[in-house]
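Repro:
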Amino acid sequence: MKIMYCFLILCFLMACSNEEASGPASESDIFDSITNKNTGNKIGYLLDSSAFYADSVIRKYIRETLNTRDGEKFTYAIHKAPLNPDKKIDAIISVNRLAYAKQTAIESGHVAQAEKLAYMGPFNLFIFYDGGSNSFSIPVPVPSSPLLPLEISFANISSNQHKDLVVDFRIRNSSYKEVYFLFNNKPSKVFQWKNFDGLNTPNSEAYSFSFNPGNGPVRDILVYNAKIEAPKDEIDPFIFKPKIIKSQDLRKRFFYVPAQGKYFSTKDDPEG
């Protein structure tokens, strides 16, 4: 599964290589380009602005950083939470580029193959908005199926004083969970595991999660075996959201290793 996953990502990244890259820009450089032209000063706290103005700023930022084509349609959603110690309200902006994924498949001449893979590729992403500095992070791609947008949630994992980011996404008839911590106000993935796999097949599997106190200040992540409730009607396994039946059958316990900046289980080698 890992090999196939990496191969699919590579294929779709190559398919997108015909896009001209404008080169990486720093968060402050890009934010400076969307200032209030009347005053020459940076805008106030973006999330307190009018819906129309916030939308115009966010869309401009997305288009500039992703170098989108003229007229490309995409959707985004804003998810607010305090995500760092400054106690300001921050946000995660999730972006879905399904229209671009379909257009890329058409232009490559591989529509049938793309449909079979649920348009797998770098077409879902998120942006961290820091309420304290009123700035955006560089977009973080989450290779997945854009038939469904990213599911964004928050939990107290690294601290009780602020939230951490939890991202759920789909790959064909499976679903994955990722946890991100902020390092110098930049999101970094520290954990990944399946939510479920093999949906609508005899070999389906599912898991549930809890964040429990461990030996250090960062909570451990416990993974439990679970089951998928059998759908009552015919479903599309690429977009159907099944009900997960939880259990107390512990599958793995992951602990955070600060020196490595990620989670490991007792059977993992932190040096690997």
